[in-house]
Amino acid sequence: MNAKLDSGTTTRPVTRETFDEVLVPTYAPAAMVPVRASGLDLWDQNGKHYLDFTSGIAVSSLGHCNPVLVDALTRQINSLWHLGNGYTNEPVLRLALALTEATFADRAFFCNSGAEANEGALKLARKYAHTKFGPHKSRIISCLSSFHGRTLFTVSVGGQPKYTEGFEPLPQEISHIPYNDIEAARAAITDDVCAVIVEPIQGEGGVIPGNPEYLKALREFCDKTGALLVFDEVQSGVGRTGALYAYMDKGVTPDILTTAKALGNGYPIGAMLTTNEIAQHFGVGSHGTTYGGNPLAATVALNVIEMINQPAFLARVKEASEKIMANLRKLTADFPQLFGQVRGSGLLIGLPVAPEFKGRSKDFTKACEALGLMLLIAGPDVVRLAPALIVSDEQIAEADRIMRAAAEGMLNTAPAK
Ligand SMILES: *Cc1c(COP(=O)(O)O)cnc(C)c1O
Q1: Of 42, 125, 135, 269, which residue is 20 to 30 A from 35 by alpha carbon distance?
Q2: pTM exceeds cut of 0.70
Q3: pLDDT tier at 1 (50, 70, 90 boundaries)?
Q4: Which residue CA neighbors atom 11 of ligand 1 most closely?
C-alpha cells in the first residue's frame, strides 16, 4: 500500500505552513491563504475580508469569478475541453477573429502564458531575419529593468540581471539599453538587429511609462534597419491602460504584440499577434504547444475581449484611474516622508517610496494587508496598484481610507532619526 495515501494526504488540513513543507521555495506568499473571491472582494481561510487591488498581477481585470465568464466557461466545459493542434475549434477561431479585427494584427498564435508568448515572438523574429536577411541578423535589443518572463530565453532578454544569475550559459546576441533613451537606441539598433522588444509601460521594473517619442523613435530605427518591433503588452494589454492595447494610445504600431495576463482573467492563455507577412515565416511544424488555443481558454478570452473592448468600459478605466491618481497625489502631499510622485497609465499605477523609506514598499503593502487591502509592489521601492478594471468609486474610497491608515501606522512605527 502507498504510505502517503495511508497517512491521509487528502484529508490533512492545509495551511500556509504546508507551502513551506511541500512547495519548491520559489515564492514567499503572504501569511493568509485566500479561499473565495467575487469581484474585488476576497476572503481568507479565517473568513477575513480583503479588498483586492492586485487582480492577481493585473490578471483578473473583470473581477474574481465574473458571472459572465463563469457561465461561458461552464457551457464550454460541458461541450469540449481539449483537442491536440491536429484539430482546430470554434472558440479559438472566434477569438482569433476578434483579436485580429480589434488590432493591427492579421494573425494570432496562442499559448499559455506571457513568457511563452514572448518566447514565440523572439523565435519568430530570429526566424524571419534569418530567412530574409541571413544568420548575421540575429541581435535582440531589450531595455534595462524590463521584464519578459522566466524561460531561459525570456529572462536573458529581460533587463534584470538578478533573474539570470546562476543560469548561465545564456542565449547569445542580446543587448540591453536604458529605457526611454532615444540616443542609446539609435546607437544600438544596427544592421545586425533582428528585433527590439519593449514594454510600452514597464510593469515589474517599477511602473514606468514609455515616452511616445521614444516608442516612435524605436519604430523609426526598426524601419531603417529591418528589425522587428515587438511590444510586450502582457501586463499593459487588454484594457489595463484604458486602451484595448497601450500601443493604440501611443501612436506607434508594433510588428509583433504579445498579450497574456488579463486575456484569460485568470484562466491561463497567452497570444502572439502579428502581420501576414511576418506570420508566413512560422510555417507548419516550426513552433507549437499542446494547450495553445484550447477551447476552454479561448472561450474565456473571447468573452473577456468582448466585454473590455467597449468605448464606455475603457472610458471608465480612465475615469477610475484619475480618481485613484488624485487620491494618491493627496496621499503623497500628506505623507511626503513616505511617498514620491505617483505615475502610471490607466489602472496600472506606481507609487514610489520616498528616499527615507527606500527598500520598504513591501512593509507598506503588508500594513495595508493587515487592514484588509491587498496591493502589489514593483520592486523594493515602488508600491503598485492594479485593481480590477471594474473597480467602483466606493472601492476606490475604501482603498484610500486603508492606505491612509496604513501610512499613519508606518510613520508611528518608523525608527526615530
Ligand atoms: C508577467 C509578465 C510576463 C510573463 O508572463 P507569465 O505569464 O508570467 O509568463 C512577461 N512580460 C511582462 C511585461 C509581464 O508583466
Answers
A1: 269
A2: yes
A3: very low
A4: 148
